[in-house]
Amino acid sequence: MEQQKIEALLGEMSLDEKINQLFQGNGMFYEGESIATGPVSAQGFTEQTIRETGSVLSIIGAETVKKLQKAHMENHPHKIPLVFMADIINGYKTVFPIPLGQGAMFNPEMAKTGAEVAAKEAAASGIHVTFAPMVDLVRDARWGRVMESTGEDAYLNSVYAKALVEGYQGEDPKAPGKIGACVKHFAGYGGAMAGRDYNNAELSERTLRDDYLPAYEAAVKAGALLVMTSFNTLNHVPSTANKWLMRQVLREEMGFDGAVISDWAAIEEIKNHGAAADLKEAAKLAMEAGCDIDMMTTCYANYLKELIENKELDEKLLDEAVLRVLELKNKLGLFENPYKDADEEAEKELLLCKDHRKKAKEAAKESFVLLRNKKMLPLKKDEKVAFIGPYVEEKSIIGAWSVFADEADAVSVKEGVKNLGIKAIFAKGCDSLAPGETIHGMNKKYTNNRSKADAEIMLGEAVDAALKADKVVLCIGEHMAQTGEGASRADITIPKHQKRLLKEVARVNKNVIVVLFTGRPLDVRKIKEVAKAIMVVWMPGTEGGNAIAEVLYGKTAPSGKLPMSFPYSVGQVPVFYDEFRTGRYYDGKPTENRFLSKYLDVPNKPLYPFGYGLSYTEFSYSKVKLSADCMKSGEEITASVKVKNEGRREGAEVVQLYICDEVGSVVRPVRELKGFEKVWLAPGEEKEITFTITEEMLKFYDINMEYKAEPGKFIVYAGGCSDTENAAEFTFG
Ligand code: GLC
Prior knowledge:
Layout: H1 3-12, H2 15-20, E1 23-26, H3 47-51, E2 55-57, H4 62-75, E3 83-86, H5 99-104, H6 108-124, E4 129-130, H7 154-169, E5 180-186, H8 205-221, E6 226-229, E7 233-234, E8 237-238, H9 243-253, E9 259-261, H10 269-273, H11 279-289, E10 294-295, H12 299-309, H13 315-331, H14 344-350, H15 354-367, E11 369-373, E12 385-388, H16 413-419, E13 425-427, E14 438-440, E15 445-447, H17 452-468, E16 471-477, H18 496-508, E17 512-517, H19 525-530, E18 533-538, H20 544-552, E19 619-621, E20 625-626, E21 630-631, E22 637-645, E23 651-661, E24 672-681, E25 686-693, E26 700-701, E27 707-708, E28 712-719, E29 727-732
Parallel strand pairs: 1-2, 1-10, 2-3, 3-4, 4-5, 5-6, 6-9, 12-13, 12-16, 16-17, 17-18, 21-29
Antiparallel strand pairs: 7-8, 11-18, 14-15, 19-22, 20-22, 22-25, 23-24, 23-28, 26-27, 28-29
Helix pairs in contact: 1-13, 6-7, 6-15, 7-8, 9-11, 11-12, 15-20, 16-20, 17-18
The structure holds alpha-D-glucopyranose (GLC).
Alpha-D-glucopyranose (GLC) is lined by residues 37-38, 57, 87, 131, 184, 263-264, 485.
C-alpha cells in the first residue's frame, strides 16, 4: 500500500483504535493453543483491546493463524490485519544448534542458511516476524541466556547479526518464505550484573558503544524491521524508558526507522524497577522514550488515552508509534495479503523435510568444538565402544528456546550411532537430572521420577559396560532447562550426580571421551583430569545425534572454535580475551611479586580461550606478513599468512586476525578480533589467507567520545586462536 494511504488510514483511526493497535497479546486471549514465554496475568484486558489489537505473539499454525486473522479483520473497524510474531531463535520445527553453537561454527553463511530454513518453515505456519536475532554480547557464563548469543566478541556478533537478518528477511521480507527480523535485546542485556538474569547492567558509555552496540547496529544496517527493548537498566535507566538509548542512539545515530517493541511486560516493569510511581507513569515514560508496541501489559491500553486527553502526553508521539506499526505491516505486505505464507500444504511439505534436516546436521557438525584429544578420536568402526550417559538417549537437545519444536523429532546419540550402522554398547548410567529433581523449562516441566535405588542399578550397569569396552564415549552435560532465560547458575560445572558417573566410569576405563552438552561455557577442570578427549556439542538441535556420530567416527572433522571463553573457574567470571592490560599486567608466569593483577588461587587465563578448537589434524602457520609497515589515514594494508594441513586427515581451520592498538587516548584491549576465514584443507594442502586492514578497523571511542583511529603502533596477530603470538607490527598515521 502506498505511504499516503497508510497515513490516510492513520488519520481515520479513532484514539482508542490507535492505542489498541500498540497492544500485543499472546494466545491466551484467543482460542487455540499458545505458549507463554514470560509471567502471565490476564489483568485488565478489555474486549475492545483484543478486538482492536495490532499484533499477537506465540500463536502458530497455518490453520489457526488464518482463522484468527479472518475473524480479527471482520471485527476490526478498519480491517487492519494482525501481525503474528514468535520466538524462532534457532529453528522453528527443524532446529539448528543454539546460537552459541552457531557462533562456534565461525561460519555466518551457514547461520544464514539456518535462518532461511527457519523463515520458510515459520512463514508456512503463519508467522510474520521472529524475535531474533538476539545479538547481546556475553562475557558471563553464569547468565543462562549466553546460549542465545553468538558470543563474547563484538566483531563476530556483528557478522552474525547481519547474516541472520539477511537469512530471515532476504531482499524483501514480504517475499514468500521470508519473515521480519526483530533484533534484541536493546541494549546491553548481556551485561547483567553477576550473570543474574534481568539484573542491571553497569556499563560505561564507551564499553556500551565499543563492545555492545556494534551487533545491534549491524542488524539495523542489515534492515531488521523491529528492535526489542531489554529488561535491564543502563546508567540506572530501564531500557524501555531510556529516551537517550532509543531516540538518540537507535533512531538518530543508527538511523533505525522501524518499530520498537517492548520485551515481555517490560513497560510495566519500569514501575517494578522503581523508575515510575505507577503504570500510568510507566506508559508515559515508555511512549516518550519511543517504545511503540506494548507486549503483554495494559499500560498503553489503559493509560495512554487519559495521558493524551489530559495533555500529559503529545498525541503526535502516539501517531508516530502507530504509523510505524502500520508501516511494519506494509513492509510485510499484510494489507495486500493478510495471510502471507500461511499454508497447511506447505507446512506438510516443509516442516522437518529432508533438506532442512540435512542443513541442520551440517550446521551441528560445524558447531562442535574439540577441546582435547589424546589420540582418542576419530573412533574406528571396529573398536569396542560403550556410549554411556544421560545424553545417549536424551532428546532434550534442541535448546531452551525451541518452544515450537518437538523434542521427539530430535535424533539421539544412540540413534545417530545406529544410523551409521555401528555396533556399540549403550548404557544410560544416570539421568540428566538427579533422582527426584524437577526443573521448570521455558514451556514445560522436567522431573526425574527415578528412585535412588534404580539410579544405583543404572550406574552399576554403566560401569559394567565401561569394563567391557576399549573406549567410553560419555555423553553428559547440563540439562537443557538449566540454560536459557531465567536460568542463571552460580555453579558452572556439570551436575553432581553426573560427576559421580564420570568418576566411576573413569575408574574402570582410562579411555574416556566426553561429549559435553551445554548452553554455556562450563568449568571442565574435573572432566579434563580424567577424560582423554572432550568435545563440546552445545545443544546441537534436531539432528544432534547424527551429527555427533558422524564427527566421532570421522565422517566429518570437528571445526568449531570457542565463541566464548571457557573459564578455569567461575571465580574468574566475567573472563574474556579482549581484556585490558591494567597498570600491573600479569603475564601468567610464576612470580613472587604480590602486587600484580592476579589471583592467589587461580590463573588469570581461562581454561580454554576464545577462538580455541582442535580438529583431527594439525595446522602450521607461516610468519604473518604485512604489505607495509606503515599505513596513512585513508590507506589500507594487507596481512597474509600461510596455513598448512600437516596431518593425514582433511580438516578445517579458522584463521583469525587480531589487532592490538598499543597506545590510545584511552586504554585499549590487549587485542581485538578483526577478521576470520574458515578453510578446509586436505592433508598436506597449504593456503595463503590475506586480510585487508582498514582505518575503520582501528577506530574506537576516544577520550572525547569521538569514533576514530589514532596514530601510533599496532600489532597484528594471525593464527588459529586468540592467544596466538604470530605477530607483525605497523604504524598508522
Ligand atoms: C521473553 C524474552 C524475549 C522474547 C519475549 C517473547 O521474556 O526476553 O527474548 O522474545 O519474551 O517471548
